[in-house]
Every structure is written in C-alpha cells, then in structure tokens.
Design goal:
The complex is a heterodimer.
Chain A (H helix, E strand, L loop, with lengths): L9 E3 L5 E8 L3 H9 L1 H7 L7 E4 L6 E6 L9 E11 L3 E8 L7 E10 L2 E9 L3 H12 L15 H8 L1
Antiparallel strand pairs in A: 1-2, 2-8, 3-4, 4-5, 5-6, 6-7, 7-8
Helix pairs in contact in A: 1-2
Chain B lengths: L9 H4 L3 H11 L3 E2 H7 L4 H13 L3 E6 L2 E6 L5 H34 L1
Classes of the chains: A alpha+beta, B alpha+beta.
Chain lengths: ~170, ~110
C-alpha cells in the first residue's frame, strides 16, 4: 500500500544552525540507502519530475550533482551538488550540500538509517555555518526555493512556540 | 525584497532574542512588567521597549488592573509563522512521499519477480 506514511516527516531545529528531518520507511535499510545513493533510483524520486541531471560518483571524495524540478508547481529548475565525505552502507552518509542558487550557504549533511522490525528510520541533518544562513535557506525552501527572497528571518526556537502554544 | 519593520512583521519582532525571552516568560500566564524584569536579566526600560514592539505586532496585549498593567501572550498572532512552517513541511514531505512510493514500488516489483 502506498501512501500510508505520507506527510509523516517531522522537522526540528535541534540547534541554532541545524535542520533535522526524520521519516520512517517500510523498507530495509540497505534498500533505503541504495535509493538515496544510486543515480538510477535518485533520478526517479528526488524531483517532482524525473531529474534532468543526476550524476553520482559514489566514493569518499566523489561528487554528486542533481538538477530538476524540485517541487510540484515549481517553474524553475533547481540544482544541488556536493561531495561525499563518509560512506558507511547502510547506516550513515555524510557529505557537503550546496544549492546552486546560494553557493555561499553550504551545509554539511548527515544521513543516518536505523532499521527495526523491517521499518527504517531516516534522520537527515543539515548543519549550516550559522543561524542566519539556515533561516534564509529554510525560508527560501518554504517560498518555492526562490532563494533570493530569503534572509532576515529569525526562527530560533520557533518549534518551541509551536508546540507550547498549539 | 525590502525588509519589513519590526513593528509590522511578526517574524522580525521575534527575531530578537530578548523579545523571545519575554514571550517565553509570558507562556505561564499574564504578568506585570515588574514580574518579567524579575524573571529575566533585563532592565525595566528594556523590557518596556520590547513589550511595545510585541504589542504593536499583536503578539502581546495589555490590560489595566488597578494601577498595574498586565501583559499577556496572544498566540493566535503567531499564525504567519505556523503558515510558514506548514509550507516548509509540505515541501519536504512531497519529496519524502515520492521516495516512499518509489521504495514501495521497488519492493512490490521485487516480490512479483
């Protein structure tokens, strides 16, 4: 059955400069890891349509480059690239992460997978260099990845307010 | 994009760490300025200045009780931030839902082989 876990990703801001996304998948960790790292898989799901460019040189020090429409209804193509720094199949993947619209806002991305009873929990942590960079990038993502409209938004501890006041 | 002034934009009003501390202090309930000053390491003029900004964007309201003025949190005015976070969450969920569907399709095809 598709769709039973749709919309279940949780988003947190564990520190001033980080974004942490957590999501579970009904699949073994090895398969989740391959779907995150093999170009024939990534090109099928990363963008709203099949990616135009999906280059992956999967080794420590190797680079990746994805270009495509990232969100439904988005009219601009988006380009992401980075370098793999740590590869430990199927539990851990570390690399740099750069959105080409904002090359100054490079982040360190750490993906960790933990499988239990056939369910794999993925955590995807993006660590930016400071809070202002993180806030401007998350703001840009919310605004359809029009990165130049970002900036200036302080969202420190926003999640505390949302949970406390809901 | 021009930056909105602190007095018209909730995002900018809460961008200041001191103003967030004041909002935190009001989570437990209505308080006079003096109680906020006691809770936080800020001077009374500083707290009053920040309360004025928070009042202007509607995050804090004020009523008189005898000679005291009591300040309270107005969480409904955080709505623009809820809307923003919901949009960000939707963008991330769209991608991870596609990944989920793809994983399920792969496994279904594998079982049928």
């Amino acid at each position: 059955m598709n769709g039973t876990r749709h919309g279940s990703a949780t988003i947190g801001f564990p520190s001033d400069r980080e974004v942490l996304v957590t999501r579970q998948f009904d699949a073994p960790a090895e398969l989740v890891f391959d779907v995150l790292t093999k170009p024939e898989h990534v090109r099928m799901w990363f963008g709203a349509k099949e990616l135009e460019v999906c280059e992956i040189d999967f080794r420590v020090g190797g680079k990746y480059h994805f270009v495509g429409f990232v969100m439904d209804g988005d009219t601009a193509t988006c380009s992401f690239r980075g370098t793999y720094l740590e590869i430990e199949r199927p539990v851990r993947l570390v690399g740099t992460w750069v959105f080409d619209g904002r090359p100054d806002a490079e982040a360190m991305e750490t993906v960790e997978l933990r499988e239990e009873d056939g369910v794999t929990t993925m955590t995807d942590r993006l660590a930016f260099k400071d809070r202002a960079t993180r806030d401007s990038m998350t703001w840009a993502a919310a605004d359809g990845l029009h990165a130049d409209e970002g900036g200036q938004v302080g969202l420190d501890r926003l999640e505390d307010y949302l949970t406390t006041l809901a | 994009m021009a930056r909105a002034s602190t007095t018209s934009d909730v995002f900018n009003a809460v961008a200041d760490a001191h103003r967030r501390e004041i909002l935190d202090a009001l989570i437990t309930g209505e308080k006079p300025v003096g109680a906020i000053v006691n809770d936080l390491s800020m001077s009374q003029p500083q707290v009053s200045k920040h309360l004025r900004v928070l009042s202007e964007v509607g995050l804090v309201s004020c009523r008189a009780e005898g000679r005291r003025r009591l300040y309270r949190l107005e969480p409904a005015h955080l709505q623009p931030m809820h809307t923003w976070l919901a949009k960000y969450e939707r963008a991330i969920n769209e991608r991870l839902d596609r990944m989920d569907d793809y994983l399920q399709d792969l496994q279904r095809r594998e079982r049928m082989r």
